[in-house]
Amino acid sequence: MKKLIALLKQNARLSNAELANMLGRTEAEVAAQIAELEQSGVIRGYSVIVDEERADRDAVSAYIELKITPQPDCGFDELARIISGFEEVESVTLMSGGYDLGITITGSGLRAIAGFVAQRLATLDGVLSTRTHFVLKRYKEKGILIQEEPGDERGVYL
Amino acid sequence: MNYPELMSKRAQQIAPSPIRRFFDLAETMDNVISLGVGEPDFRTPWPIRQAAISTLERQSIFYGPNSGMLQLRQEIASYMERRFNLPYCPENELLVTVGGSEAVDLAFRTLIDPGDEVLICEPSFVCYGPLVSMADGVPVPLATKEENEFRLTAAELKAAITPKTKILVLSYPNNPTGAIMRREDYPEIVELLKDTDIFVLSDEIYCAMTYGTKHCSIAEFPGMRERTIVVNGFSKTFAMTGWRLGWMAAPAPIIEQARKIHQYGIMCAPMISQRAAVEALRSCDAEVDRMIEEYDRRRRFLLSRFAEMGLPCFEAQGAFYLFPSIAGTGMSSEEFCERLLQEEHVAVVPGSAFGACGKDNLRISYAYSLKHLTEAAVRMERFIAKNCK
Fold first, then answer.
1. Cβ-nearest to B301 among A18, A154, A157
2. Domain B46-283, what fold?
3. What is the ipTM score, two decimals?
4. Which helix (H) or strand (E) holds A2?
5. Which residue from A13, B48, B154, B293 has the least number of CB within 10 angstroms?
6. B45-95 tens-digit pLDDT
7. Which residues belong to CATH 3.40.640.10 in chain B?
8. Chain A residues contacting B via beta carbons under 8 Å
9. Cis (ω within 30 of 0) for the bond into B253?
10. Separation of alpha carbons A46 and A11, rounded Å
11. Residue at A19 is within a domain
């Protein structure tokens, strides 16, 4: 299972036949394992890693630190759920340390992000403060290099 | 100066490496995707690099003992016993060399008298013949067959032995075929050799890279240790090619002679590399296993792709090479490689570079990322569909 997940993390578009070949199993076994991983919720979905800058020259990404007040019954969960519901939000994580929620968001231009923070995030009940960091350059995401990979330095010497 | 007249005739008779030619051509072209390199694509595991950095920071880099640091020889002895069941005495049966290739050279120079014949199982890596010649020996190719998955058979060996045979060179897991010798392949060969005066040079540089079965050395068999020189190194197993470090394991009288040649010609293997190699043997088993697993994935991937494109290929279980047959295409391996390079910009090595018996094959290295292999396979498939149906 671990090896299968590792391969899918590298490239979720490998076919079951290719995965089976690489793992030395049958296609049917791989299909069954993937189905099980999906049903049990280990695999939550399949996505694509995009170089936002190439896709849209105006795209701006930000990482936002949020301090919030925990609610009596549900702690941080309720607010985290509300924020997760915003379409422009890419990830929401509860953090240990100096702030509570870490949020990543990509928008078309600085204004879009500023507007989102000021109008939608900061106004939520329970949000104490926000701190927005803009992304200057991306190097690697989910194990995939965003910058050009260095060329092969190996030569043929014999 | 009339150089050709004045320089060693023997040196001038050595042919340039046949692998190089294609790559010199490939370098003049754009967008070439290569499956030609014979070294790992992985970076040297971090603990090894860290050990080298800390050596540079904290220690003087003096000459070391001719045989190599005792601490390193002890680690090598423990590694060989632990992984391959081969006990050697660190004090007098091991010699640390500048790569496995120096150990190969030393073995020939230590054992060969003028006119001695050296049987070289082919297809094989290209260094053995020239080094035998330089040691005044006579290289004798011993062709292995695809139908035997390029293993040496006792019958082939028996037919090749003459009264002048001094050494049998075995290099399994094999470059370029990826062939391995299984444990059950050895007893008959051992039977042939054990009452003779023939030595065996067993080049086991790819010993860590076997898939589905553990490497077996001929030196393990009764009666063989006393006549076998095992050559090994750090380059392939630990992704340390540029560190230039290998070793020779052999009976003490052989090491004693080899050490003199090494002492006068080399002095000692690089000390930074030696200190880093101690770390490699101590703490990198898991890293090595991870790399082997990745090679195996690539091997399976390429084998299945070759099957899909109708390129026959025996299931190689060692090293990081596949050796598909192009016998059915009507092209020689040179022609196939040259056209594949011109038409699809894929550089592979013709099997003929590794001996006449490889003339119907290609050497494909899978020391490349899956992404790279995927693209190369697409181009090869297109080439075969166009030219070989």
1. A18
2. Aspartate Aminotransferase; domain 2 (3.40.640)
3. 0.74
4. helix A2-10
5. A13
6. 999 999 999 999 999 999 999 999 999 999 999 999 999 999 999 999 999
7. 46-283
8. 3, 7, 10-11, 17-18, 21-24, 152, 154-158
9. no
10. 10
11. yes
